[in-house]
Design a protein that fits this description.
single chain, mainly beta, five-stranded antiparallel beta sheet
């Protein structure tokens, strides 16, 4: 997984039917979607049975540098999103401190 610090993104199927994850990304305050290379426990696409979870890892410094390139500094609020094979988008709000992640 590399030697740097990583952001761990966990997806859990809280439903009662299987779901296949096909994409994960960050949605910035300006609504721009950003996709990063992920290091994963399981490859995407990933089929999750009800109550099953999976984890994905993104290098913190890479994310922070990309956000800075987009003009962001300090603490920002954004969404982590997952898309399934039917086109449904699942999102979770998070806060990210750019300076402490470099």
């Amino acid at each position: 997984m590399g030697s740097g610090q990583h952001l761990v993104i966990t997806a859990v199927n809280a439903g009662i039917v299987p779901v296949t994850l096909t994409n994960t990304s960050f949605k910035l305050p300006n609504k721009k979607q950003m996709v990063f290379p992920i290091q994963q426990q399981d490859a995407i696409p990933k089929k999750l049975q009800p109550s099953e979870s999976t984890e994905y890892y993104v290098e913190l410094s890479l994310v922070a540098k990309k956000f800075q390139q987009e003009g962001y500094n300090g603490r920002i609020k954004l969404f982590v999103t997952f898309t399934d094979s039917l086109g449904n988008v699942y999102k979770r709000r998070m806060k990210f401190n750019i300076e402490s992640s470099l």
